[in-house]
């Protein structure tokens, strides 16, 4: 990143209709880290085939909470799909956490899942498998090519908006109606 550019950490990237890569089409990514070496984020609107119960069972973590077991695990991106990432709103000192922005954290350690299984975890949490990564300058190039729209992150959108409404919901935060864009016209 040059001195004139700004970190997009704690922003949402909203895929514009021109982005047709099936991995990222109609996706919303929370950028967790962005510096001179590139960017890292997690997709926050693509359900995976797994539930949190599946993930906890694989990790041999037991919970009696049927709602927690039924929580959808998200497809966080194509990088490290075997690795779990928890986006949450709990500032406690978990073993491996990154403050993404005001009131939003990313944790990759087992202790947060164990706390969730005991009913002692964050009030709000999204669990993803995998992440997305951009090499040095790649994200800036994709933004210049109009592949993404950058929007300030919003806890309400992350934790309260239904998955199928996050794509348009994120864009509408800055007044953009994705269904009215030229590349989207005529597509159902």
Automatic annotation (TrEMBL):
Gene3D superfamilies on file: VC0467-like (3.40.1740.10)
SUPFAM superfamilies to which the protein is assigned, alphabetical: VC0467-like (SSF143456)
InterPro entries: AlgH-like
Pfam families in UniProt: DUF179
Protein family (similarity comment): Belongs to the UPF0301 (AlgH) family.
PANTHER family per UniProt: UNCHARACTERIZED PROTEIN YQGE, UPF0301 PROTEIN YQGE
Protein name: UPF0301 protein ACEU0G_000033
Annotated organism of origin: Stenotrophomonas nematodicola
């Amino acid at each position: 990143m040059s001195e004139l550019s700004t970190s997009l950490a704690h922003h949402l990237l909203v895929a514009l209709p021109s982005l047709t890569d099936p991995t990222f089409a109609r996706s919303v990514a929370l950028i967790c880290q962005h510096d001179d070496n590139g960017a890292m984020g997690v997709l926050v609107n693509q359900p995976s085939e797994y539930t949190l119960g599946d993930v906890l069972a694989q990790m041999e973590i037991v919970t009696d909470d049927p709602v927690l077991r039924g929580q959808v695990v998200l497809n966080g991106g194509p990088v490290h799909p075997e690795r779990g990432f928890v986006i949450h709103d709990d500032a406690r000192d978990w073993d491996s956490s990154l403050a993404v922005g005001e009131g939003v954290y990313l944790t990759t350690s087992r202790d947060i899942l164990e706390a969730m299984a005991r009913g002692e975890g964050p009030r709000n949490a999204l669990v993803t498998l995998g992440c997305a990564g951009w090499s040095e300058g790649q994200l800036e190039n994709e933004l210049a090519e109009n592949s993404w729209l950058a929007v300030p992150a919003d806890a309400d959108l992350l934790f309260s908006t239904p998955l199928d409404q996050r794509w348009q919901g994120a864009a509408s935060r800055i007044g953009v109606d994705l269904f009215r864009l030229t590349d989207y016209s005529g597509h159902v």
